[in-house]
Structure of VWFA domain-containing protein:
Amino acid sequence: MKRRFMAWIGVLLIFMTICSGFYYFSTKAKAADTSSVSIGFNGGVVKSKGYVGNDIEVKLRLTPTGSINVTRSPVSVVLVVDSSGSMSSNGKMTAAKNAAKNLIDSFKNSAKSGDKLGIVDFDTFINDNSTFYIKGFYYQNGTWNKGNSSSIYGPYSLPNNCTQNLIDLTSSSAVNNAKTYIDNMVASGGTNMEAALNKAKALLDSSPSGNDKYVVFITDGMPTFYINGTKNGYPLVDGPGSQPDNTTKSETLSAVQTLAQSGAKVFVVGVDTTGADVDKTFIDLMASTASGKSYYISNPSALNSILQEIFRIINLAVTYDNLTVEYPIPSGLTITSMPAGWRVENGKLIGTFNPVTFENGGTTPASQEVSFKITSNSEGIYNLGKATLTFRRYDTLNGETTGSVEANLGQVEFVRMPGISATFQIVGSGNIYVPNTQYDAKLIISAFGKSLDIPTVINNFALAVNDSYIALQKITTTNPSFNYAVDLGPTPTSLTIDYKITFLREGTFNFTPILSYSINSAPNSMNLTPINLFVIDATNMIKSFSITKKIISDNSSANISIKVDDLGLFSYDSSAKIKVYIEMNPSDKLNTNVTFPIQLVVDSTTRQQNGLRVLSKTITFKLKPSFTSATVSFNISQIDIISGGVTYTTAYEKKINNVVVKKAILR
């Protein structure tokens, strides 16, 4: 319990001193200056106007500015390599060795007088042939085994793959020996980060006074061992062995803090191929505690490029990374394409630029440009708003800072592509027409949209119908057209072409007018709204009209009968009616039980006989007192066709002559 309490006290002290330590190292006076470099961010649309449903391209550009050409101080760099057992999987150990040797070559090739290098290989303890004891574990046949948790085993010593002192980077033989140490590293054992950091501190303590100090730390896990005092004058290794705990973490952070207080900056590279081995928050804290920088990668093949970036930073490069763009998508707009790896999330377009490195003595890095495409299904002017680029900047003189820049993307207008809509109308009311009769008709064409790229002409209008029993005659002799100027609408916005239409048969017509036209001489066509109507000749509807008696006695009755051909009207409109008007002449000599004119109504329920609709009406005749006889006639004077709530009236004449009414009944 006492040990755990002291461990937490150590963690608290570390956090309390981080801020003051960071301030000391970030404000330390330097002769060199890296403030001459920066990045800019701008963007906008390639074209400010587009057609509804089409794409408009938006470009974003990151522009580095300036260069660095300064003289750095000599450096002392200690490369710390984790060779614990887990490093044997997924090619991590091989990748770490190759990347480490390449890093050494980079330092050697740019070495100046006074540059120093140290190598530290660690797992359960430091692989430097030094003596140590360990609690709860024993070493046998090259393998660490779990023993009695309260027992202390040892003493042990591990093979030597560490430099005993800082070596001169300008010495080829010393550099080759350091690379041999790396080649001899073997993955085995646990992860004692505290011991490795203490060894790095011991090496850097011998650094020349004018040298800048750096630790480059490669690991694939978390601390599982720490130093718990001594036994017989040698370090005692303790810890869970397989998993980190609060003590291993706090002791590791305490060792980082000690390095920071000595003026060293720590770069930490976490290689996590499973996604569960390295705690990114922890390695971030390690790096920030010592004013360094952390890297978290899943692919060991990325180690080489990461270590080369660290080399450039130590050589006074400035890096911009975590270059993340967020763009809130305005309402009404849709992203139709984006760069690989970008995504739309919670109404925002999110993506990244590649990291930017200003190398000391190098040229200005190249600009980067990406583009995405937007569209809208509605006309209107849209303010595209701003895209925000956030970044992390790091250099060894000024440490790590974060910032953001904005790019105002301007506005864009979406308009409808030039086009037309059209209707064909037959002049008159309702849907009942007479065959072989010319009717006035109108083709009404309306234009919409704007012409953006080139002037547009829509003309050569021609109308046709898909029925051979319809005759269509164009009356308008001109060839009207819509003329669009660039960025303007048409003039005029609508036009009318007059036609005559004739139906050559009776019955139902269901036809589709087809409009052909040209847009800038390119042929087009459209089907207009289908038209449904009925053509009927009422003069052919009455097939017989009779009365049962030609001579009728006074005060007796006779039947008037009528047979009507509906000509298919009720198949077209089952609710239609045919109303027949019958008159009697003269009407002043007789009294009847009905009022003339009589209206007889035929509908779809009227009785049929031999395909004709049959109606009859019984009429009682009585002579008026002053008459002993009367001769009258009956005639049909009018036929109304009622369909769709509209009445179509046809004047008609068909007579029954010489019906005689007498006082006496003739036998």
